[in-house]
Write a structure and sequence with these properties.
InterPro entries: AAA+_ATPase, P-loop_NTPase. This protein is of the alpha/beta class. It is 45% helix and 11% strand. The two termini are 41 Å apart.
């Protein structure tokens, strides 16, 4: 039986990409719970419960597939999220329609507060309530549990939340469902709990002015979007005429500025809608950086792409960071916002090289954040910093990947698997911070396989392999560079 003492040793040879999705996602949950000597597992009973359930499921799977853990498990019977729901014999076609009309009527009676940003606990409760009556996979349930636990550990959901009782109940229901279900489960929430969840879900509604400003920012830097700009212009105009947005609105002035910019773009001849930097910075402070992830750079249109002639391309100026010395010999002179993957066996020198590189970048090229998720704040990290003299004023160290990294020019994540990040997480963090360079550090097995997502190798600009104290690179800026560590 797997447990906290033997999990990483016994699971080391498993290729997670070849296991059922629910089991591979469970591994990420365990990696998060095991940080800082299993601190979250030992201090949170709900995390302990779901991790123990995962240990049991993985053990059962490996027992049934001792030599071929690549075979997908067959769907098990469908179970309900709450075992106390009515028996299957009770529902009938006739009475089932009446509650639907009643629910629709109740929805109109909800007292909603207009807010700039919907609270995290309300978002999770709404997400769970919408699952009612739908069939979900084991992996989907585990993903929601993982996201919820992460929000709690990061204190985005706090113990003093007004909905702490509902969050705990929802959490227990999800874990109970995961423990009992097969590959699929129909989520059934009893009527009393569902009513309460829906009341909370509808207690907050996003402000219309914020939604319109969000749509406005999404057009920034895009070419040939006059039709979209005109539709948004008319939406703002209609909202004002109908009294949905008044002068007393907190962001009436910002919306008025957006209205003027849209009108100038519609009436004029520019190919691209451009929001001036001062206005854009003001909106970023209001809306939050997460709303800017779809903002295009250099005129690139996320929907249709940017088409330029070969001559225009040659005339474009692409900024590099101006890298020099041994690291230029290794990877070349990369562009601003480059991405790199560094991989190798444990104890091969990856972290040492990356910490030295981080110190070099801090001394010559900008502000650097080194996320030492693998080692944390401990003796080995301190020893490396002292040995490498990596204590520049521009170099910052953390034991996790913080949500806000907008102040940094370079971010090192050591390691990706320990941080519990997948391809989607990596893609999102890059979109949120297009001018930040990321160096992702991976461990490999003795067979040379990544402990993580192999497909990520196709998404980065630079790949560096570290083996026995030597680093070699391939990539877009320099092919075949090498250096001794």
């Amino acid at each position: 039986m797997l447990n906290t003492n033997n999990y990483f040793q016994k699971s080391q040879s498993i290729d997670w990409e070849l296991l059922p999705e629910a089991l591979s996602k469970g591994n990420k949950l365990v990696e998060g719970a095991s940080q800082n000597n299993w601190a979250a597992y030992n201090s949170n009973e709900n995390i302990k419960r779901v991790v123990d359930a995962y240990f049991q499921k993985l053990s059962d799977y490996l027992d049934k597939n001792p030599s071929a853990p690549t075979q997908k498990s067959m769907p098990a019977k469908v179970v309900k999220a709450e075992p106390k729901t009515a028996s299957p014999a009770k529902p009938a076609p006739a009475p089932k329609k009446a509650p639907e009309k009643k629910a629709a009527a109740e929805k109109e009676e909800y007292d909603s507060e207009d807010v700039e940003h919907i609270d995290t606990d309300v978002q999770f409760i709404k997400r769970y309530a919408t699952m009612h009556g739908k069939v979900k996979s084991q992996a989907q349930i585990l993903t929601l549990i993982h996201s919820l636990q992460k929000a709690i550990l990061e204190r985005r959901i706090k113990k003093d939340s007004p909905y702490a009782k509902e969050i705990e109940l929802m959490q227990n229901q999800l874990i109970g469902c995961y423990e009992k279900m097969g590959d699929m489960a129909e989520i059934k929430i009893d009527s009393k709990n569902l009513k309460r969840y829906l009341q909370i879900a509808h207690s907050q509604e996003g402000m219309l002015s914020v939604a319109l400003l969000k749509a406005y920012v999404a057009l920034n830097g895009k070419r040939d979007v006059k039709d979209k700009a005109e539709r948004l212009f008319n939406r703002i105009k209609k909202a004002v005429e109908q009294g949905k947005i008044t002068k007393s609105d907190k962001y009436a002035n910002k919306l008025n500025e957006a209205f003027g910019t849209l009108k100038n773009y519609i009436d004029g001849n520019p190919a691209m809608l451009t929001i001036n930097k001062t206005q854009l910075n003001g909106l970023m402070g209001i809306l939050g950086e997460d709303l800017f992830q779809k903002k295009s750079l250099n005129g690139y249109d996320d929907d249709n792409g940017m088409i330029v002639s070969s001559g225009e391309l040659l005339a474009m100026d692409f900024q590099t960071i101006g890298l020099k010395g041994k690291y230029k010999e290794l990877i070349g002179d990369p562009s601003v916002g480059f991405t790199a993957m560094v991989y190798g066996l444990p104890k091969s020198g990856k972290s040492t090289m990356c910490l030295d590189f981080a110190n070099y970048l801090a001394a010559h090229h900008g502000k650097v954040l080194f996320c030492a998720v693998e080692e944390g704040f401990g003796y080995t990290l301190k020893e490396k910093i002292e040995r490498l003299k990596a204590h520049h004023s521009n170099l910052y160290i953390t034991d996790r990947v913080p949500e806000n990294i907008s102040d940094f020019d370079f971010v090192f994540i050591d390691s990706v698997s320990k941080a519990g990040m997948d391809v989607n997480d990596i893609d999102q963090i890059r979109k949120l911070h297009p001018n930040t360079s990321f160096i992702f550090i991976y461990h490999t097995t003795k067979e040379g396989k990544f402990k993580g997502v192999n497909e990520h190798a196709h998404e980065v600009d630079v790949i560096v392999q570290v083996d026995k104290g030597k680093a070699t690179s391939t990539g877009r800026f320099n092919a075949g560079g090498s250096m001794d560590i």
